[in-house]
Each structure stands twice: as C-alpha cells, then as structure tokens.
Amino acid sequence: MNTHIEPTDFVFDDLAEGAVTKAIARYPAGKQASAVMALLDIAQRQMERLTGSAWVPRVAMDAVAQRLGIAAVRVYEMATFYTMYNTKPVGKFHLQVCTTTPCWLRGSDEVVASCKKVSGIEDFGQTSADGLFTMTEVECLGGCVNAPILQINDDYYEDLDAARTEALLNGLKSGAPLPPAGSSIGRQASAPVTNQTALLNNTKPVE
Amino acid sequence: MAKVTVDGIEVEIANGSSVLQAAEAAGKEIPRFCYHERLSVAGNCRMCLVEIEKIPKPVASCGQPVADGMVIFTDTENVRKSRRGVMEFLLINHPLDCPICDQGGECDLQDEAVSYGRDTSRYEEGKRAVAQPDWGPLVKTTMTRCIHCTRCIRFSTEIAGVPELGATMRGESMQVGTYVEKALSSELSGNLIDLCPVGALTSKPYAYTARSWELRKTDSVDVLDAVGTNIRIDARGAEVLRILPRLNDDVNEEWLGDKSRFSVDGLKRRRLDRPWLRENGKLRAASWEEVFAAVTNKIKSTTPDRIGAIAGDLVDVESMLALKEMFTSLGSPNLDCRQDGAVFDASQRGFYLFNTSIAGIEEADALLIIGSNSRHEAPVLNARIRKRWLAGNFQAGLIGVAHDLTYATTHVGAGPDAIAALLDGTHPFAEVLKAAKKPMLILGAGALARPDGAAIHAAAWKLAAQFNMMNDDWHGFNVLHHAAARTGALDIGFLPGPEGKATAQMLGGGVDILWLLGADALDTQAIGADTFVIYQGHHGDAGAARADVILPGAAYTEKDGTYVNTEGRVQQGFIAVKPPGDAREDWRILRAISAYMGHALRYDTLQELRAHLVQTYPGFALTGELRRLAGTNLTAPAGDLAAVSSAPFQPVLQNYYQTDPISRASPTMAACVAAHYPTLAEAAE
Ligand code: SF4
Ligand code: FES
Ligand code: FES
C-alpha cells in the first residue's frame, strides 16, 4: 500500500479561482454540480503547479464538494472512478504507458522495460526513488495508429522503441524540459510512415 | 393506463409503471436485488430479466416502462437461463460463506440461488476480497459480500438524507462505502441492514447471536419515541434478541429509528426484577407482600391531597388508567403525565395531537417547525417530511435551534419572538405560509415544556388560525410528542383534577407520597426530601434511585399494552417475553395493591380492563386506524399570549441515543453516544 501524507487543507489559489468560476458558469443555474470534473482537474493542476505532483488530495475533493454544494462522497466517487485523477501523489513525470493490444503488438513491452530501466521503478503504480517518475499502465489512449504510445503528463510520445524511450527519459532525468510531443520518428501527424500516399497533388478529383 | 399481458394474464396499470410492477400486479414474482419500491431505480443487478414480445433480448423489468399492448413473459426457458447467468456472475465474487454469515436464512441472494443457482461452481479463479471498513457501532460491514446493488447508497442519499455512502473506484475495484472511514451519522442507519439483500451489512450488536428460524416473532409497537412505529420483536427463550420494523404505510412505511432498533440490549440490563424497600436509607430486596404493606400503610396514613402520581414516557394506557382510577378512588386529584413540566391546555384532542397525520405530511406544501429537532425526536416522521420536501414545491421554516433536519429549512428565529414576527408579517416566511394551500406547523415538546408553554401553545394556535392551517378538509396544527405514553395519557385525562397539583407542584415537597409510574425524566433532586417515593417501573434509573419502595414492572416487550401515537392512533403491542424475576405487568400490580388497600379496581383481566377503557373513552375502540380531525373547531386553547417570554427554544433531547431508561441501559446506545457525542460520553465517565 502506498502510504503518503495527506495535506490538511486545500484552497483554490487565484489562478485556479478564475478557471473555477469559468467552469461553473458553463452550466445553467442549479446544475453547477456538473462542473465537478472540471474542478477536480483544476485542483489537480493547481497541485502540480504548487507541489510538482499532479494529484487530488482528499481535502481538495472536499473543497470541490463544498464549492458545488454537493455531498463529499459524490466527489470521491468521481475522483476515484476516473483514472486520470490521481488520488495519490505522482512523480513530476507521470509515465502512462499504453499496453492495450495495438500498442502491445507494436512493442509496448519495450517501452515498459525502458521506463523501468531509466526510472528504477519495479512495477506499475510505483514512483521512482527520486520522485521524478510514476509509471502507470493505461488502456488504449486512442493513438493506436502511432503505437506504441507513452503519455507523459498531458502529452503523447509516439512511435517509440526501447532506445528512443530511454533517450527521452534520460533527457528528463538530466533536467531537460519535455520535448515537443508527437511522433519520435518524424512522422507527420498520423500519416503513413512511408510518407503520404493519399491526397497528393497528382490525384485528380473524381469527375 | 396501459393494458399489458403478463404470462397470459391481462392487467391494467398506470402509465409510467415498470414492467416489474406490472408483473407484480399480475401476481408474478420477479427476483430482484437492486430494485426497491421506496428507492429510485438503479437497474444494476440484472436479476429481474424478463422477455418482452418484439424485443429480441431479455429486458431488466425494473427499469423498463410499460407500454400499451406489451406482452411480457416472466417464466420462459430463456428468462430462466438469463437469470441463471446473472446469478452465476453475481456469485463469482461473492464468498460462499453462508455458514458463518449472519444473513443466512434471510438472505435474498441465498433464496434466489435456490431457484437460479448452479449446484456446483465453474469458477476456479481467485475471488476478490474487500476490506471491512468500520461504520460505527451499529452496522457491521463485510464488503466482500457486497453485490453492488447500491440500495444502501440510495437509502442514505434519498431517504435518510445523509449522503455519506457511495461507490468509489470502478470495475472489479469498485467499493461501496464512505471512502473516508467514519461512523454512519444517520438516525436511520439500521435500515441499511434490512435493505442490504446480502450479508454485506448486518447488525453489529446482533452478530452471531441467532439464526432467523430460531426466533419467535411478535408484532408490537415501538415506545422509544411517539411515532408508534410498528415493530416485530424477535425473541428466543426469555430473551428479546432484536427488533425489526414492520410495514405500515400510514406510520413508518418500513423504517425504524436506530434507538428503537438497537436499544434491545438495554432490556436485559439494570432491570428491576424484584421489589425493593428502603430501610435506614438503604434499599433492600423485599417480597411483594412487604412492599404492598409498606405502600398501603403509608397511603392510609396520609391525606389524599398529599398523594400524587406522575406517569412516565413509556407507559401503556392500561396501567395509567388503573393508576388514575386507583387515585380517584383514594380521593386524590394530583395526577400528571407531563413529567417534563409542560403545562398547556389539553381540553381538546386537537390541541395536542399531530392532527395532519404522518401520511398527511405528504399533502402539505409548507411547514413551520417550532421548538423541535424532529430528526432526533421522531426520526421516522422526519424522514416523511424529507420525502415531502424531495417531491418539490414545499418549503419548511424552523424556529428554534438551527439543526440540520436533512431537508432545507429557513431559519425564522431562535425563540418565540419569531412567532410574533410571523403573526405580524414582518418576517418574509409569513409570505410562504400565506401563499401555501395546505400549510402545517409542528409544535415540538420542547416548546411546551417551559414556563410559558401554555402561552406558546396558544400563540402557535393563533398562528395556525391566521395562516388558514385549519379548515374543513385540512388540519395543519400539530404537536409532536417524543414520549410514547403522552398522547394516551392525555386522552384518558391523566392530568391534575379539580384543585389537583401538576408535576411542578408535586415536586419540592408538594406531596408526601409521590408515585412514579415509570417516570425517570423528571429532576429527582427536586423531589422534596421528606416525600415518600414509590417507583413502579422496569429499570433501575433515576426514579428507582430516589425511591423508597420499588415495584418491579414490565417493559414494553413484556406486556400487552395499548399506546396512542402522536397522531392519536391507538395501537396495541403484544407480549414477546415474560417480565424478569418477580416483575409483573404494571396494571396487575396496581390491581393487586388496590385490593390490598380495600379499594379493589373493577377489573380482574386485561380484557375487562380494556372493555372498561373503551366504555369510558370510546375513542379507544378504534385500533390501528386513524380518524383524522378536520380543522373546523377553531376554539383556541387557553393561554395568555402576553406571557410568552423571549427565551430561545432549547433542544429537549441532549442526544438522540439515550433518552429513556431502556436506551440509557443499553451498551450499544452508549457506544453510539461515544461515537457521535464524544464530549457527552466523556462527561458521563
Ligand atoms: S452493501 Fe449491501 S446494500 Fe450496499 S451495495 Fe452492497 S449489497 Fe447492496
Ligand atoms: S492501443 Fe495504445 S493507443 Fe490504442
Ligand atoms: S432489480 Fe432490475 S436490475 Fe436489479
């Protein structure tokens, strides 16, 4: 069991406040409870900003409940249902490795192995000793065309193999910022690796 | 109305009803785990599958609305096969630990498994196991057995109005619970045990005590508040083991308050099981003969106007009538049933009843509560108010301490000044009452049990009259008692006769002999030092501690008795076990003493006593049913409006769990106090 220290209070800071107000305003009067997902995300991002770890402590869930006038347990249900809310602290870089069939066929095992190797993490759900990485197993990220996918925090790194994963993580380890997201082999969006084969200029519109 | 055919039987049913309801109307039983007629429909157990013509797949009947002309099959091979499939899946993660499960023998899952389960399991993988969270002293959790029907979640959110249960995580990791471990804070939490279709939620105090088939079941009425909740007493041998609610849509639906359910262990403790006599300042065990002689000698040597009797909160009508008539024959007018010291005009039933009736709450569209924490004083009735509030178009105002009553209230004020502000229209809530078609007010016992009680009573009546709460087909003036004996006592006039003394005058040496019939809630310190106290009752509580003579009586589970609930509904409780030791039914004790004194009461059997009761007070002829009063008699109760003080209303109950000799003797209730009122529990140490 992961033991961690829960903070004793949570208050939305000024930056978050703006986003909270905006999120709540999106829903008609009386339906503010619908903003619960947005507020949890805002809370998680505030935690990331202030502590370097993107997670939602229980007190933050309570703050969300209070803000929306709903029972705290309704927020706990939400926050624990969706895997993208972290109810435990995570490392600065949250490595979310997709291991669903397409990614697996395309070598997600290698990505997992590289993550373990660089971070020293032994298994999913753990955080590295230096607090830099947390590795989580996730289901299909919807980027199968460029499989295998590793999501780090908000960004997708695609078309990975062992070497490129290691290079990426070693960079992060040495303090480099997150490189631009996307394909690691220079593929343009999700176009075929063998370059564009459709919608070329030479194709004539069908009469 | 929609016409549907269920297994060839044609039934007509209201539009919007579910297929399951239609099947029930046709007399077909549909297995179900998550569906419950008093909760919202969740549709997550899938046990209620049926086939419907033109729908290719089996349909969950609880969530499927009927349509005209629907042809429903509840017992085809396909239906049975589907249900068997559902059952097999449910059992995948359900431990097969029935032999050590308290639900065994009264478990829906077990019962349905008989019809739809396989005789052997095909499942060889590991089963999931879930931690057992601590939900406090009442509800025991074995969440590995939970089948995720969410009934408990829906009950606490919808009925109890204390949303602390939820389903966290998802899929195989889903857990039903509080997430942050805590003791359930609802006064209705025991109902979760009844609702849980499996053994995930069971009674903690009753754990491993008995199997359901060993129990002798007796229908009765609860007396730990004045709602008159219908209960079933389960006993084995000489011991009451548990109390469960019985269905009565007019009174408690199918709910029961925690105090009423879990105080049973108090019935075994601190019992007065033999007569006692004080000699040289010390109580010593005595024989009936001795105490009869002591009481008779004392009474014979005292003038009648120096003898008084006070009836307590849990007493049956029969024994109060016997005591009253004994006092009348002795020539003493000093009787009172209001040990809380309340003095108000009780000359008409309408002045002290919950006239709207409990079911009638659902017709009201505005409510004003004065000086009551109905959540503590009558949790089941309070749940009815919440039900009304949930239905919408209903506003509630509160005068007194601003409690969380589980529904939204406008806090009009803390004391009687707020009544004045409503009368002269200066408080905006007056507009709410004015606009309402069927407004009602509830006057709590706490508002009457103060020196200006009669004045407040009159002021509240005036408020009711002014806001049209009383008319030909509506009576919105209500008194909410919390003592089960009170209404019955008022009905038979257990009140000071001409020149008679009320509770306050009997205390402080106002009488030389004070007969306490189960009266423990008065300030025994205030009884005159030279007053000879006769305590007749079943528990060694405050009254017995001060007594010079103790006459051991029977608790409500140990006698046939008549009780009148706060609405004025006459109900009968039945004996489940015999009183312990030498204790006897109270009316019998009184009958025996009266004979000893040479004033024998006119009845030798309970039947005769009851016949006499009905003859003297014909209202007692009607039991179980309630004749609602119309609000046509506008004669106001006596009370000097000018005497209203502005002291704020105080709560009458210090806590919900320990309010009477039985619950005070209950270790379970003590545990609840420790869990929910830590400061009170410490003070009691
Ligand atoms: S604990 Fe019982 S009532 Fe609650 S969800 Fe589980 S099975 Fe249903
Ligand atoms: S399988 Fe990995 S992104 Fe879809
Ligand atoms: S009873 Fe219909 S799905 Fe549970």
Automatic annotation (TrEMBL), chain A:
<keyword id="KW-0411">Iron-sulfur</keyword>
<dbReference type="InterPro" id="IPR002023">
    <property type="entry name" value="NuoE-like"/>
</dbReference>
<feature type="compositionally biased region" description="Polar residues">
    <location>
        <begin position="185"/>
        <end position="207"/>
    </location>
</feature>
<comment type="similarity">
    <text>Belongs to the complex I 24 kDa subunit family.</text>
</comment>
<protein>
    <submittedName>
        <fullName>NADH dehydrogenase</fullName>
    </submittedName>
</protein>
<keyword id="KW-0001">2Fe-2S</keyword>
<keyword id="KW-0408">Iron</keyword>
<dbReference type="InterPro" id="IPR041921">
    <property type="entry name" value="NuoE_N"/>
</dbReference>
<keyword id="KW-0479">Metal-binding</keyword>
<dbReference type="InterPro" id="IPR036249">
    <property type="entry name" value="Thioredoxin-like_sf"/>
</dbReference>
<feature type="region of interest" description="Disordered">
    <location>
        <begin position="180"/>
        <end position="207"/>
    </location>
</feature>
<dbReference type="Pfam" id="PF01257">
    <property type="entry name" value="2Fe-2S_thioredx"/>
</dbReference>
<dbReference type="InterPro" id="IPR042128">
    <property type="entry name" value="NuoE_dom"/>
</dbReference>
TrEMBL record, chain B:
<keyword id="KW-0520">NAD</keyword>
<keyword id="KW-0408">Iron</keyword>
<dbReference type="Pfam" id="PF00384">
    <property type="entry name" value="Molybdopterin"/>
</dbReference>
<dbReference type="InterPro" id="IPR000283">
    <property type="entry name" value="NADH_UbQ_OxRdtase_75kDa_su_CS"/>
</dbReference>
<dbReference type="Pfam" id="PF22151">
    <property type="entry name" value="Fer4_NDSU1"/>
</dbReference>
<dbReference type="InterPro" id="IPR036010">
    <property type="entry name" value="2Fe-2S_ferredoxin-like_sf"/>
</dbReference>
<dbReference type="Pfam" id="PF22117">
    <property type="entry name" value="Fer4_Nqo3"/>
</dbReference>
<comment type="function">
    <text>NDH-1 shuttles electrons from NADH, via FMN and iron-sulfur (Fe-S) centers, to quinones in the respiratory chain. Couples the redox reaction to proton translocation (for every two electrons transferred, four hydrogen ions are translocated across the cytoplasmic membrane), and thus conserves the redox energy in a proton gradient.</text>
</comment>
<keyword id="KW-0411">Iron-sulfur</keyword>
<feature type="domain" description="4Fe-4S His(Cys)3-ligated-type">
    <location>
        <begin position="78"/>
        <end position="117"/>
    </location>
</feature>
<dbReference type="InterPro" id="IPR006656">
    <property type="entry name" value="Mopterin_OxRdtase"/>
</dbReference>
<dbReference type="InterPro" id="IPR015405">
    <property type="entry name" value="NDUFS1-like_C"/>
</dbReference>
<keyword id="KW-0004">4Fe-4S</keyword>
<keyword id="KW-0874">Quinone</keyword>
<dbReference type="InterPro" id="IPR019574">
    <property type="entry name" value="NADH_UbQ_OxRdtase_Gsu_4Fe4S-bd"/>
</dbReference>
<dbReference type="Pfam" id="PF13510">
    <property type="entry name" value="Fer2_4"/>
</dbReference>
<keyword id="KW-0479">Metal-binding</keyword>
<keyword id="KW-1278">Translocase</keyword>
<dbReference type="InterPro" id="IPR001041">
    <property type="entry name" value="2Fe-2S_ferredoxin-type"/>
</dbReference>
<dbReference type="InterPro" id="IPR010228">
    <property type="entry name" value="NADH_UbQ_OxRdtase_Gsu"/>
</dbReference>
<dbReference type="InterPro" id="IPR050123">
    <property type="entry name" value="Prok_molybdopt-oxidoreductase"/>
</dbReference>
<feature type="domain" description="4Fe-4S Mo/W bis-MGD-type">
    <location>
        <begin position="215"/>
        <end position="271"/>
    </location>
</feature>
